[in-house]
Amino acid sequence: MDIIVPGHGSGGKLMNDLINNLIKSTLGNETIQLDDAAHLNLATTSIAFTTDSYTITPIEFTGGTIGSLAVNGTVNDLAVMGATPQYISCALILEEGLEIETLKRILVSMKEAALKAGVAIVTGDTKVVPKGKGDRIYINTAGIGVFTNPPQRREIKPHDTIIINGSIGDHGTTIMALRNNLTFSKGLSSDCAALNHLIEDVIRHYPDAIKFMRDATRGGVASVLNEITKNAPFGAKLIEDNLPVKDEVRGVADILGIDPLYIANEGKVVMIADKTCAEGIVEIMKKHPEGRDACIIGHITNEFSGKTYIQTKIGGKRILPVLIEEQLPRIC
Amino acid sequence: MSDIKKEAALLSQYLLPQPVAIMEVCGTHTTEFFRTGVKDIFPQSLRLIDGPGCPVCVTANDYLDTAIAIGWQHNCVIATFGDMMKVPSSYSSLAKEKSKGLQVEVVYSPMDAVDMAQKNPDKKFIFLSIGFETTAPAEAVCVLEAKKKNIKNFFLLPGNKLTVPAVKVLLDSGEVNIDGFILPGHVSAIIGKNVWDFIATDYGKPAVVAGFEDHDLIRGTLMLLDLIKNNTPKVLNQYTRVVRDEGNPKALEILYSVFTKGNATWRGIGVIPESGLDLKEEYADFDAYKQFPVDVPPPKEHPGCRCGELLRGVILPTDCPLFGKACSPEHAVGPCMVSSEGPCSAYYKYGRK
User: Fold this and answer.
1) FRET pair for B54, CA 20 to 30 Å: which of A109, A182, A257, A294?
2) Same domain flag for B313 and B325
3) Of B11, B32, B41, B111, which to mutate for an interface test with A (greatest number of A Cβ within 10 Å)?
4) Ranges of chain B with pLDDT below 70
5) How far is B16 from chain A (nearest CA, A)?
6) How far is B53 from chain A (nearest CA, A)?
7) Does residue B352 sit at the A interface (CB-CB below 8 Å)?
């Protein structure tokens, strides 16, 4: 089996072959510029720029790979600002011994994710670290998006509605089940997906309604809301009856003693929007495959300022505290 | 209105002639009363007192001191449930010792420790056997498996405790006025409902064995309040779908084929006779206490920590001057703030508004 060897990072023929015959040809001969930097033309001077590194283990999982995760994660970081993602960079850190076949599958999934999101991978880098100094593959992606609308950040007020585009906790639960060998947990799949088309559609129909949005990755939905309510003159209230959680996710989360509200998602946006537009936004989301199960999960309140809390099925309330520690490391 | 919402309304509007205090014995109940919001809908004159039902919390400091000493002095791997990692020992914690190089592995099941031992025959694995009657049968099975497979590098540090003697001590002390008990569902699945009957017959108090879902907690509390209101000292079983009167005889048989009752030290309570589980003489080869004698400095309590009084039901977490200030989940002074079943942790996470 062909594997990555130190020479693949040496700057010589092996490296050039790897880049030309595998990386560039898979990620896009037509988009990747092999010069020191990519030369880009942007439609506006108002841009969003972000970067993120991906260290997830396992590197391939139901619903995605570290590659599709890297593209979608960066696309989503741009999209939740209200920008239109356009260009992505891709820096690979490969551990000696990684199978070339595996690398190829990951690159293919990156390319597919980029095509789906409508972004171009334009520049990159490849490094090889000795065996034992990495965990097979790490990826860093940076992204550039352009603003054709103003950034979607407006003042949050009591009575604003909290919306999510679908089920909670799918990604983190899938990874945890894989890592813990919970083989009975059939039907689990990561929600890893790009949300830019869904978000752009919402903005197109409701250009002034969105107050805030964030993709609910590490720390889950509860952590996104805690970031918003920290020191704020309002609270965030979730309604347990309304929370979309798949039975499989609930089952695994119960076994591991983890609340799905704190589990990472990779294709979910938490949106705070004006109450009068909330139902309409949900309808728009539902037209997209990533938003089929979109729903209203709560609202901003005058009560419990500075806190995120939940009204349980029986009508009691409890605080959703700030997560003290990561529940599971290296989930993205 | 759904059935559960009707039940919730019954509880929140329950009329009590005088203030009532009930104790939940089990740590999972402590957390679930908060998590489900059931505690939040209690009628005003109903108070929930936390009992000694968090196994990590009632484990005295000298147990962890011994585990750490065995790890270092005998070059052993300590295998433990994750809850124990950050619990302060007299002078350190497993997490701190791990960062200094002590070999510590977190496991989800005691059988993981047996598997690790089998796969790594050159290392010695000590499983920290902490828990009540619920987990003890699984730990007994591990010892039986290790014996059957002739695994010589797996050991238990027995720290299991029995709930019934602790409840007896609380009732005998008369230190706290408790009108009734919510009894542990998982423990009772093993030991049965009938072993709790003494609460009614000997002490004249009512009690209800309850499950852990929102509807269980509400129904169990309603049943208990009815008994209290009507002055009927009885022990009832709400959790009939899991708990039988005589418990699980098979599990008990396995448990007592490996363990035997012995004295145990409880944090905050002291030594309670016949309240712990020791390994039987025939399994002495698996007993870390016997196989790895160690020098351990005398145990030390943490100044100001009131976990002991809390576990006897004398105070609430919020009565402790350290709560939320010097003691928080990031910097826990006492075990009740560390364990996911600890009352302080539950109050800190869910109770502050």
Assistant:
1) A182
2) yes
3) B41
4) 352-353
5) 20
6) 18
7) yes
Amino acid found at A11: G
pLDDT tens for A249-295 read: 998 888 877 899 999 999 999 999 999 999 999 999 999 999 999 99
Q: Are A312 and B12 in contact (CB < 8 Å)?
A: no
Q: Could you tell me the CA-to-CA distances from B45 to A306, B13, B16, B48, B204 in Å, in that order?
A: 29, 11, 7, 10, 22
Residue of B34, B38, B340 lying closest to A257 (CB–CB): B340
pTM given for the model = 0.84
Q: Where are the alpha helices (DSSP H) in B182-259?
A: 185-191, 198-201, 214-229, 249-258
For B351, half-sphere exposure in the C-beta direction (CA atoms, 13 angstrom radius) is 20
Of the candidates B135, B132, B134, the one whose C-alpha atom is nearest the C-alpha of residue B243 is B134
**Residues B234 and B332 occupy one common structural domain:** no
Of A310, A315, A319, the CB nearest to B41: A315
B282 and B230 in one domain? yes
Chain-centroid distance, C-alpha B271:
16
* ipTM at complex level: 0.74
- The number of CA neighbours under 13 Å toward the Cβ of A254 is 11
Q: What is the 3-state secondary structure (H, E, C) of A254-267?
A: HHHCCCHHHCCCCC
What count of residues does chain A have? 332
Question: In this complex, is the C-beta atom of A324 within 8 Å of any C-beta atom belonging to chain B?
Answer: yes
Gap between the Cα atoms of A282 and A209, Å rounded: 12
Residue B13 belongs to domain spanning: 1-303
Same-domain pairing of B90 and B217 = yes
Burial class (CB in 10 A: 0-12, 13-18, 19+), A5: middle
pLDDT digits (tens, 9 = 90+) for A11-53: 899 999 999 999 999 999 999 998 999 999 998 899 999 999 9
- B residues 103..122 contacting A (CB < 8 A): 108
Domain ranges of chain A: 6-146, 161-319
Chain A contact set for B95 (CB, 8 A) = none
Domain A6-146 class, CATH top level: alpha beta
Q: Is B273 near chain A, with CB under 8 Å?
A: no
Residue of A nearest to B43 (CA): A316
Shared domain for B241 and B334, answered yes or no, is no
Q: Does domain A161-319 have CATH number 3.90.650.10?
A: yes
Q: Which residues numbered 55-94 in A keep a CB inside 8 Å of some CB on B?
A: none
The answer to whether residues B228 and B311 belong to one domain is no
Segment 219-248 of chain A within 8 Å of chain B by CB: none
B283 DSSP assignment: G
Nearest CA in chain A to B10: A314
Side by side, which strands form the sheet with B154-158? B104-106, B77-80, B125-129, B154-158
pLDDT in tens, B207-229: 999 999 999 999 999 999 999 99
State how far the Cα of A231 lies from the Cα of B67, in Å rounded to an integer: 42
- Reading the block at residue B88, the tokens are 């302060």
Q: Does B36 touch chain A (CB under 8 A)?
A: yes
